[in-house]
Amino acid sequence: MTMSVLDEFADHLRHERGRSEHTIRAYVSDVRGLIAFAGARGVPVGDIDLALLRSWLAEHTRRGAARTTVARQVSSAKTFCAWAFREQILGDDPSTRLQAPKAHRALPPILAPDEAVAAIAAAGRPSPAADGDADGGDVGGGDTDGGGPDARGDLRESDDPIALRDVAILELLYATGIRVGELCGLNIEDIDAHRRVVRVIGKGNKERTVPYGAPAAKAVARWLRDGRPSLVGPRSGEALLLGARGGRLDQRMARSVVHRAVEAAGGPSMGPHGLRHSAATHLLEGGADLRVVQELLGHASLATTQLYTHVSVERLRAAHRQAHPRA
Which domains does the chain have, with CATH numbers? Predict the structure, then answer.
């Protein structure tokens, strides 16, 4: 019964709600825990009520779960109960009165523009071998020609295909602010080199078009011309970015590439989402309209984008405290 319910719920999330596989895994895992919690107390799925939901969340809170985790569990429970009520698994929807705790939204670490340039340069330099991804043994970095920025910020990266790919990864993530899953899902046809825009399929299978600048265009062109042909194999298909054995680059390796490059440039511990934060903050600091940034990032709610205005304000305050004699 439990597996059947979970499988049907996963199908609902996938086909009716258009949720990403990452979200489906998280929601199904949460609901599996909820059902197990109920079962341990002799409560079948069909008898889950508000008191049990609150007890389940309280248990996680007592165990020290972060507010963001509890907030996601509330969302999972609400989605599940609404679906189960519709499917007549539940007699009513007990989650309508369930409220999520307000998640503490810490200011994310971001790179300064010159740090972003340094990280991109570092992606083209040699780096220690890293464990491979599911595609098999990717390593970052290139040969020993330096690969640093010149006076204009252009990159002299090596001709090593992995180094060319890694530079393209950093350039695209920083230029567009797209999510790592969106990056890894790109196909060659999604790049419009003439107009310098990329077509992205985001959360909920929503499509948007995001522009990118000349440095990213140069990096992608070099990768497609000099790097990708060296890695193409039977499993490559139309994937824009490839792993060392020719399959589509996976998210874990993309994260590893970013972490290594930022660390090598002396930046904070940061993955692809940090580059997304940095791109959004730099757009706003440069005068971009909040709603334009919302559209570029693919945020469903303007409230999510507004987080970056707080980042910008904090940076201004920090500069004021450091520079003003009466701060």
Answer: 2-97 (1.10.150.130), 113-288 (1.10.443.10)
Annotation marks residue 310 as catalytic: no
Residues of the chain with pLDDT under 50: 127-134, 136-157
pLDDT in tens, 143-167: 323 333 333 334 444 678 999 999 9
Q: Is 299 a catalytic residue?
A: yes
Concerning whether 273 is annotated as a catalytic residue, the answer is: yes
Q: Which of 179, 248, 259, 260 is catalytic?
A: 179
Tell me the pTM.
Answer: 0.64
Residue 174's nearest CA partner among 273, 249, 250 is 273
User: How many other C-beta atoms are found inside a 10 Å radius of the C-beta of residue 5?
Assistant: 19
- Whether residue 212 lies in the annotated active site: no
**How much of the chain exceeds pLDDT 70, in percent?**
80
Choice among 32, 54, 203, 208 that is catalytic: 203
Is 259 tagged catalytic?
A: no
Q: How far is CA 135 from the centre of its chain?
A: 20
